[in-house]
Amino acid sequence: DTEVTQTPKHLVMGMTNKKSLKCEQHMGHRAMYWYKQKAKKPPELMFVYSYEKLSINESVPSRFSPECPNSSLLNLHLHALQPEDSALYLCASSQWVQNTEAFFGQGTRLTVV
Amino acid sequence: DAKTTQPNSMESNEEEPVHLPCNHSTISGTDYIHWYRQLPSQGPEYVIHGLTSNVNNRMASLAIAEDRKSSTLILHRATLRDAAVYYCILRANAGGTSYGKLTFGQGTILTVHP
Lengths: 113, 114
Hints:
- The complex is a heterodimer.
- By secondary structure, chain A is mostly beta strands.
- Helices cover 0% and strands 58% of the residues of chain A.
- Chain A has strands spanning 4-7, 10-13, 18-25, 31-37, 44-50, 53-57, 64-70, 73-79, 87-94, 102-104, 108-112.
- In chain A, strands 2, 4, 5, 6, 9, 10 and 11 form a 7-stranded mixed β-sheet that branches. In chain A, strands 1-3-8-7 form a 4-stranded antiparallel β-sheet, with no helix packed on it.
- In chain A, a hairpin with a 2-residue loop joins strand 7 and strand 8.
- Chain B is mainly beta.
- Chain B has strands at residues 9-13, 18-23, 31-38, 45-50, 55-56, 61-64, 70-75, 84-92, 108-113.
- In chain B, the strands form 2 sheets. In chain B, strands 1-9-8-3-4 form a 5-stranded mixed β-sheet, with no helix packed on it. In chain B, strands 2-7-6-5 form a 4-stranded antiparallel β-sheet, with no helix packed on it.
- Chain B is globular.
- The chains are: A mainly beta, B mainly beta.
- Chain A binds chain B through residues 4, 31, 33, 42-45, 48, 50, 55-56, 90, 92, 94, 97-99, 101-107, and chain B through 32, 34, 36, 38, 42-46, 49, 85, 87, 91-93, 99-107.
């Protein structure tokens, strides 16, 4: 199983809502990543977790709150988002943060209204 | 962070070889060269990676210059399914500000003509 599963596939939320994105992998990977991708742009790294600990935060606003409850699961909690946060949110995993190939999910298409 | 430079776009005909170049003149000795591609409406997909020697796998070949300041991804026979954005990424394998990151540049949009 080389799959990274993201749910939901689509999400529409208001600026006062709280929602969560979920990412799951069962490859035994110990590094997990969140990316944000706007249309016709490359993915932008947001967070990196290594062994369930946050190791990299690319100066992401606090309205995005990541969580890694166990080695298979990665969440991204969303609160008080702005319309400009509308994007495709991608999750990825790799064996470790060192040089290993990463596997990406299909993403969650988020629209903030 | 060590950066990569790729052409914005390239075109190819089906069943012809494609050579996608990447410049990375500030590469450090512990950086691996990774290639990913992103098909329309999909997440990125790993293609290949290498350090110094040329690498082959079922998807592509990676040719790395002797000084490691450039590399070329080779698709031996392009198909319509290879139309995608191809990203060349330097992946740090040791400590430093880039360690643990997988940072995408602008990439090359590959168009394959029937």
